[in-house]
Amino acid sequence: MRVIRAQLGQTTLHDVRHLVGHAIYHPDDYGEAQQLGYALRDAKSFGAHYQSVRVQGECYGVMRARALSDAIHWRYLRYHYDQGAIVNVESLDGSGRR
């Protein structure tokens, strides 16, 4: 997996962080989150600002490249799978970071 690093520009993203507990945050069923994504895309949204469902923190889902600037190749990640599940992520830059 190639990781691109970029700056989020001066744009407005839909803030859905307050919807924690809503079906869009279900950790295994992506149906509601996908429906929200389709609706935002159709509304020509720049994206969404949301809470991570995997680890503590916030995420940005950017739908339009114009929202980003200064994009550079940052590193590569190798995903290791076992029966369809990700069991390890290896950074190929030698840092040991993920």
Provide a descriptive summary of the structure in words.
There is one protein chain. With 98 residues, this protein is mainly beta. It has one domain (2-91). 12% of the residues lie in helices and 42% in strands. The chain has one helix and six strands; from the N terminus they run ββαββββ. The chain has a three-stranded antiparallel sheet, with no helix packed on it. It is globular and about 40 Å long. The protein starts with a strand and ends in a 7-residue tail after the last strand. The mean pLDDT is 92.
Nutshell version of this structure?
The protein contains 1 helix and 6 strands, in the order E-E-H-E-E-E-E.
- Helical segment count: 1
Secondary structure class reads mainly beta
> Number of folding domains?
1
**Secondary-structure element order, as H and E?**
EEHEEEE
Main β sheet profile = 3 strands, antiparallel
Radius of gyration: 15 Å
Low-confidence stretches: none
Shape: globular
Note the gap between the termini.
12 Å
Mean pLDDT: 92
Strand content: 35-45%
Helix content: 10-25%
Instruction: Say how many strands there are.
Output: 6
Widest sheet: strand ordering: 1-5-6
Which terms summarize this structure?
98 residues; mainly beta; three-stranded antiparallel sheet; three-stranded mixed sheet; 6 strands; 12% helix
